[in-house]
Write a structure and sequence with these properties.
heterodimer; A: 146 residues; mainly beta; Jelly Rolls; 5-stranded antiparallel sheet; B: 4-stranded antiparallel sheet; flat
């Protein structure tokens, strides 16, 4: 088994009392929460030059109903542009079931993922190139069929 | 007012011979498409029980958020602080579609655009009562009219 640690630090002075959230976790398996995840699809970087939606995580490569984690980051700097991120069987990512949110330039997300349906994205712009980083920490990868 | 978010993901042994160290720059979370800082937040600590109802809504509906507060850049942090049993988890999703399992001790951070009332955050306790902490940034919630 592997040891994968994830830490989020979120700081805000929206309120008169500053808020600092420090979330720490070690990614573990669903069947045995004391055993660490040990598989990954690898860290990928993809350039988007159109608004055409695309599947970035194919659920049939992963075991269903597990404790996968998905990390996604919009590696572009422009806060005016974003990626729609969705949990959807088809490629569509905007205004569909189920669009999760908009990942603006520099934003990142880390979410638990059951592996039952694809993860899709769509860039908001075709005039500016956007870069996306993503990685699945898997609780079971299905070997590709020959 | 500024709200910043940073993540690090490390592993010395996930990929043998190549230690993993994901540590992107700190990002300042802003309102959609602009550089204006977020200025609203909603947070709490709640017990999520098993049973009727099985699924619970976390946070407001789109129509409970003022003006352009929905369908833009909101961010949601949830941590499952349950310690009773490590096999307990929160099933989370959008509307009635469950997307993942937030196990005891795990956290998640997502953008949420709340495009309409059918894009609400739903959670369901599995195994037993789960305790979660949550913080939703940029939720311009409309307060109910007083009776």
């Amino acid at each position: 088994m592997a040891t994968i640690n994830a830490t989020a630090t979120i700081s805000s002075d929206i309120a008169s009392y500053p808020v600092t959230i420090s979330g720490e976790m070690t990614m573990t398996k669903s069947a045995n929460p004391s055993v660490g995840l040990e598989e990954t699809t690898g860290l990928r970087t993809k350039k988007f030059t159109t608004t055409t939606a695309a599947v970035i995580v194919e659920h049939d490569e992963l075991t269903d109903d597990k404790a996968h984690k998905v990390y996604i980051r919009n590696a572009s700097a422009n806060r005016a542009n974003f990626f729609y991120v969705a949990y959807n069987a088809s490629a569509a990512a905007a205004g569909t079931a189920e669009t999760i949110g908009k990942l603006y330039g520099g934003d990142w997300m880390l979410m638990p993922y059951n592996g039952n349906v694809n993860i899709t994205v769509a860039s908001s712009t075709a005039t500016e190139t956007q870069m996306l980083e993503y990685m699945v920490f898997a609780d079971g990868i299905v070997a590709a069929k020959g | 007012m500024a709200t910043t978010a940073q993540i690090t993901i490390t592993s010395p042994d996930l990929m043998p011979g190549s230690a993993l160290n994901i540590a992107p720059p700190v990002v300042t979370l802003t309102k959609a498409g602009v550089n204006a800082d977020l200025d609203q937040k909603l947070s709490g600590v709640i017990k999520v029980t098993v049973g009727d109802p099985t699924e619970h809504r976390l946070g407001p509906l789109a129509t409970e958020m003022a003006g352009d507060a929905h369908d833009i850049a909101s961010y949601l942090y949830i941590k499952n602080t349950t310690t009773e049993d490590a096999t307990y988890y929160i099933d989370w999703g959008i509307h009635e579609t469950m997307i993942g399992r937030l196990y005891a001790g795990d956290w998640m951070f997502i953008p949420w655009n709340a495009s309409d009332d059918a894009a609400e955050i739903e959670i369901q306790a599995i195994g037993g009562t789960n305790i979660i902490e949550y913080c939703l940034f940029n939720s311009d919630v409309i307060l109910p009219t007083a009776a």
